[in-house]
Amino acid sequence: MSDYKMLIGGRLVDGDHDMDVINPATEEVFATVARASERQADAAIEAAATAFPAWAETPLAERQAKVSQLADAIVANADRLARALTQEQGKPLAEAQGEIAWAEGYLRHYATLDIAERTIQDDASGLIQVRRKPLGVVAGIIAWNFPLLVACWKIGPAVIAGNTIVLKPAPTTPVTALMLGELCQKIFPAGVVNIITDANDLGGYLTADPRIAKVGFTGSTATGKKIMASAADGLKRLTLELGGNDPGIVLDDVDVRATAQGIFNAAFLNCGQVCLAIKRAYVHDSIYDAMCDELARLAEAAVVDDGLAQGAQIGPIQNKAQYEKVKAFLESARRDGTIVAGGEVIDRAGYFLRPTIVRDVTDGDQIVDEEQFGPILPVIRFSDIDDVVARANASPYGLGASVWSGDVDHALAVAERIESGSVWVNQHVAIGPHIPMAGVKSSGLGVEQAEEGLAEYTQLSVINVARGG
């Protein structure tokens, strides 16, 4: 019998299968959850399709009110959600509490957004209006690094726009999504929100189903390409928020100590398991040694522990498969560069690695060119601005980037040359529900967040009326 049930058609149901969930800090099972079969995935899609017409006709104010109620419910259950999030994902409890607060904040902002029609022409000759209509059933497929927040990123705009949704969390982090389903079951009409789980075997089933009008996916670029191919036959609408290999470019006029702290925080948030984290730091030659030393000091001082332990700053890698991948990156770091902090696994249960700083590496090395998605930061030396911009832009990714300088105008001039969906100056991972988020190149397709993100969940319709003779 599962500890957590799925939400299908307004009912909390057991799965045709069960699935154990591993705590990455202990490598022990901490929960057993319902797991869907294809039959149950089909039932969830059908429930969403059945609920769609009435939900699409529900006044916007009522849809907004339901999303606000979900935000209220998250606040009321924040402690329980945060603890479960730490157990399934690994992040320190303080970071889990932050994710809960972010989820609430994003939902509250979505609930303020309007889907207003726009009048292009209104005169004696005619009336032309642009309207936005819901698409139908949305499949939301989410990654394991921010399982509650990203679930809300999908549910919020989908239902505000008048769509219904079938949400599928990652197999290694299904618990908080199913807990969210318990809250949704008491708020939304039956079938508007459905949450099912799988063992990485139902994604293709969802994306290929002709009743699915749109797929919203957050995860790896490789999986995003598979989803895009699967959705092609039905010409489904897509939003793909994919991988990144974000550069942080540090100019020669920074305060080394303060900037190192900002770089470190942006690189090792959530144990480096953030698509928008700094994955490669380019540091000017004149301050390179000092910056490497300061980053190494911060890494050595960081407290790595079970996320539920008092004082933990960095938790484990979320799952064993990713743990093995990151250990392979450590070998690349040892081979091609000089590790000045970390570089070793921690001899204990759980998927723990010390935060690692590697210097004396360059473009062309695996640790620089590929996304580590773990607690490793390569630091690359540069001396010429044109050269470092070209190196930053040479990546197939383009999700985020940052420029750090004591001269904001100079930093802005550099930032404007970087090919990336988001470019920050003297900060990184500065996101919010009112700020559009989009990737270029292999980092994604479409827009998340803000009014632009909400529009991705709608179909544009032009009404063109002739007047007079």
Quick summary:
With 469 residues, the chain is α/β, with parallel strands linked by helices.
Describe this structure in words.
By secondary structure, this protein is α/β, with parallel strands linked by helices. It folds into two domains: 259 residues, Aldehyde Dehydrogenase, Chain A, domain 1 (3-Layer(aba) Sandwich); 180 residues, 3-Layer(aba) Sandwich (Aldehyde Dehydrogenase, Chain A, domain 2), CATH 3.40.309.10. The protein is globular. The relative contact order is 0.14. The mean pLDDT is 97. This is Aldehyde dehydrogenase. Belongs to the aldehyde dehydrogenase family. Keywords: Oxidoreductase.
Looking at this protein, list some descriptive labels.
Aldehyde Dehydrogenase, Chain A, domain 2, 39% helix, Aldehyde Dehydrogenase, Chain A, domain 1, oxidoreductase, 15 helices, 2 domains, alpha/beta, 469 residues, oxidoreductase activity, acting on the aldehyde or oxo group of donors, NAD or NADP as acceptor, Ald_DH_N, Aldehyde dehydrogenase, six-stranded mixed sheet, seven-stranded mixed sheet
